[in-house]
Every structure is written in C-alpha cells, then in structure tokens.
Write a structure and sequence with these properties.
The protein is an alpha/beta fold. The protein is built from 7 helices and 12 strands. The protein has helices spanning 17-24, 42-48, 61-71, 88-99, 172-192, 199-216, 223-250, and strands at 4-10, 30-35, 52-55, 76-81, 84-86, 107-116, 119-120, 129-136, 140-142, 151-153, 157-159, 164-166. The strands form 2 sheets. Strands 1, 2, 3, 4, 5, 6, 7, 8, 11 and 12 form a 10-stranded mixed β-sheet that branches. α2 links the parallel β2 and β3 (52-55). α5 (172-192) packs parallel to α7 (223-250) and α6 (199-216) runs antiparallel to α7 (223-250). It is globular and about 55 Å long. The termini are far apart.
C-alpha cells in the first residue's frame, strides 16, 4: 500500500486540533490542512506539527474537503475533521495497513464514537455509526453537498475494526450554534429540491423525533448526555423544516 496522506479542513480549531494531529503523526506520510481563514492560531499550530497548510475561503464542506484531497501527494487519503481523534488501537491498525504491500479494498469505513458532554454515547442513535474516511482517490471523491457531505467510491469497500472518537460539541451552547448553522444550510438544500412541509409536520416532528432518539434508539441508557442529545436532535429536525417553510415564504 502506498503511503497515506491525512487531510483536514479547519477553522478556528486551536483548542482541539493538537489532539487530532497527535493521533495522525504515528502513521501519516503527510498531513494536509486546508484552513478556512482562521482568526486564531490554528494555522500556526499545524505548521509547528509539520503540516502543509493551505489557506482557502470556505465554500461548502464537500467542495472544501475535495480540494484538500486534491492537494495530497499520495492517492491513499484519510479524511478527518479537526475535532476527531483516532484511538490508539486505530493508530496501530493504520500502521499495519500503511506497511502492507496491497489492500483488498479501495475504500474503508471507520467506526465512530461520539463523545458528548464528557461521555461516549453507546446508544442514542449514534452508538454504531460507520463513516467512509479512508479511500483511494483514484476510485472515489467527495460529494459537493453544502452539508452532510459524503464520499462516493466506485471500488469495493471494507471496514476497519477500531474507532475514531468525535468531540463535535464543546458544550450545549456550541451544540446550539452548530444546529443554527446546519439547519439553515439544510433548509436551503430542501428548498432547492422543492420540498414542502405543513404546519402539523413541524408540530409533530419534535415529539416524534425525541421519542425515536430517547426511547427507540436508547438515549435513556446514555444518562443525562443521552437525554440532551435526544432533545437537541429532535429540535434540529423540527427547526430544519420550520426554516424550510420560512425560506419558501420569503421566495
């Protein structure tokens, strides 16, 4: 297997990016960071770690991540976010893969664990998530969706055994900030697709969503963090369609 390039997009991540970079250093042949004009020390910290840093205005998650992939020297690419950390077991697994002569698949999904309010959520609808992050760029690329981007690959896909830990939200206030941003982006996408929602749809979306996350998906087993995750996930779903109606009326 050729050397692996790790690619990251980041903005104002000086508080969290060191932990991510530390988890990549043991195996990555290079680390490419596309910095979206950070106002803090993000770029400076990455340079200290020996990363190749490229400053670029943010134009959407999918296109920004694909730009980062295109800058890599190697065809095998691991895409991670600045708030994600490879666990020690995954670092060792990646070392083994980087030393292999060849791999049986063209892309690999990675198991994820969300760390929320100081607890690893084992249920709540996020306890068994896999995301495609390691791939041969000759066989795959990012979609250009403004939010919830993904990687499309024409090759066969395998699974890695060990986990990435996602520290997506610093606290509840930060979670609410991200909900506001993501629901606005999602609403724009739904309007462009011609989706329409009624007032009853908004009214029932929250209680149904909360019941789904907290009861059906087991959020109650994750204690207080599971309760807040379920509550805010249901709020996200309801707010997204409310903003969609709002945009449609403005148009």
């Amino acid at each position: 297997m050729p050397p692996i390039s790790a690619v990251i997009i980041a903005k104002n991540e000086e508080e969290r990016i060191r932990r991510c970079l530390d988890s990549l250093k043991p195996f990555a042949a290079e680390i490419v960071v596309v910095d979206s004009m950070s106002a803090d020390r993000t770029a400076e910290i990455c340079i200290e770690y020996g990363c190749r840093v490229i400053r670029r205005e943010f134009d959407g998650y999918g296109s920004q991540k694909q730009f980062a992939v295109d800058q890599a020297v190697n065809d095998w690419v691991l895409s991670v976010d600045a708030d994600e950390v490879l666990g020690p077991a995954l670092q060792e697994e990646m070392k083994v893969m980087a030393a292999a002569r060849e791999l049986p698949f063209d892309a690999y999904t990675v198991p994820f664990s969300l760390v929320y309010l100081g607890r690893i959520l084992k249920y709540s609808g996020v306890g068994n998530k896999f995301h495609l992050r390691l791939f041969n760029r000759k066989k795959g690329r990012f979609t250009t969706s403004p939010v919830h981007e993904g990687i499309l690959t024409s090759g066969a896909t395998g699974k890695l055994k060990n986990r990435i830990y996602h520290y997506s939200y610093r606290d509840i206030s930060h979670h609410l900030e991200k909900i506001n941003i993501y629901t606005s982006q999602a609403a724009e996408g739904l309007v462009n697709k011609g989706r329409h929602y009624s007032i009853p749809a908004i009214a029932f979306k929250f209680p149904m969503g909360f019941f789904n996350f907290y009861v059906i998906k087991g959020g109650l087993l994750d204690g207080y963090p599971g309760f807040m995750w379920s509550w805010l996930s249901a709020f996200y779903a309801a707010l997204k369609i409310a903003k969609t109606r709002e945009l449609q009326k403005k148009q």
